[in-house]
Amino acid sequence: xxxxxxxxxxxQRVTEASADIWIGNLFAxxxxxxxxxxxxxxxxxxAGPAIAAQIVAVDDWQKPFQHLSERFFKLCRFEHLNAHRNxxxxxxxxxxxxxxxxxxxxxxxxxxxxxxxxxxxxxxxTIGLGxxxxxxxxxxxxxxxxxxxYDSGDEKFRPDVTxxxxxxxxxxxxxxxxxxxSGFIRNRIANNYAxxxxxxxxxxxxxxxxxxxxxHEYWNDYPFNNLNILALKALKVxxxxxxxxxxxxxxxxxxxxxxxxxxxxxxxxxxxxxxxxRSQRSxxxxxxxxxxxxxxxxxxxxxxxxxxxxxxxxxxxxxxxxRNLPSFSTQYAQLIEALAVSGNDxxxxxxxxxxxxxxxxxxxxxxxxxxxxxxxxxxxxxxxxNGFASDVANDHxxxxxxxxxxxxxxVPTVKVSYDDAYKVxxxxxxxxxxxxxxxxxxxxxxxxxxxxxxxxxxxxxxAWYVRKCDPVTGLPxxxxxxxxxxxxxxH
Length: 491
Known about the structure:
The chain contains 6 helices and 25 strands. By secondary structure, it is an alpha+beta fold. A hairpin with an 8-residue loop joins strand 6 (86-94) and strand 7.
């Protein structure tokens, strides 16, 4: 009998007419099935098309980690779907041969993208936003809370898609990082993915999911290694570093399906750009020139409000020990300048910092406002060492872009607006405990959009506690007493 929880079904990118479905088993010692099957059905439409199915034969599976013989996955694409419709997907296997019974392993539901934003009063287009996840002390809380909101919550909060914006795994925690043997390093990274993908099943099977890697997909402050952290000392050995980079990159590419830049347009109403500002970092750049040029072009040519999705905050000051976006002053200044060119309002979605908050600031001289929504963490690290990797929401930087270390002639420095009502609460830390430092309550957010007029969008945001759920319904409690609401406009 299969351990069904070891098998992963992940609805990845969806469009108006297609869906990428990732299936696999990331645990060691699991035998390849004789064949697997994905069956897709359109929901709520009895007159719709017949079920679409794809068969995965034993030779179709791929290795997520090039230097490990065990563990396997397959990415399947379904096309010719209908826009803005709900679908179900069933993942099943025959274990031994053609006479074996089909055993259902996982099921998922998702929605294709709409051709335009829903009108005012309709269910909004909603993004689920989260970052920073460790399965060590999660105990199923993230999946349970997310599934409850998706399955049973008010439909205006139900995510259509999910953006996980960094640190979906922590590959660099614990003193096992000091072991210098290649086989151990590869299996340690693979085992981390296996546990986290098992724990995140309730998220992955509800709506399309996009993922951006951040430093812990590799190691703290990747690609640099000058932090005084004992657990990272083995990276000074070139063979260890090379093995770690190769295996971690396999995980980001083959399991998270990370891309450097991706644009999602919801008709002519909203343009979303997901930018990977981590994987290509060098001493002076957070992206290579070609990808950065694409990002700048997207920003400058916006004809509607834009959503920039990045793994680190835009409203920040240069990092003192670990590098953030303002640490790369030239590209950072160029990005801010590009975002101000169109005069359209900008929404930034981010994570990384282990706190949740919403901030806003005037951008440029054409009337635009930049609103930044930060959601972190999904789960706190614990332990006397790892527990120091926590924080609480603050009011920094006070001025933008002046406090970010750059000066931009076309973007005057103005005061940033913060509201305590839209900061996620925190718990006090206690020295020599599992949580020695004050830590933000674990949460994710929902970010929703309705078109209220041509060139005008109602934006609403709510945060949801992962560990504070109704004992009867399982629904997560909201972290904000009232929903954050503002308008995104073209100017």
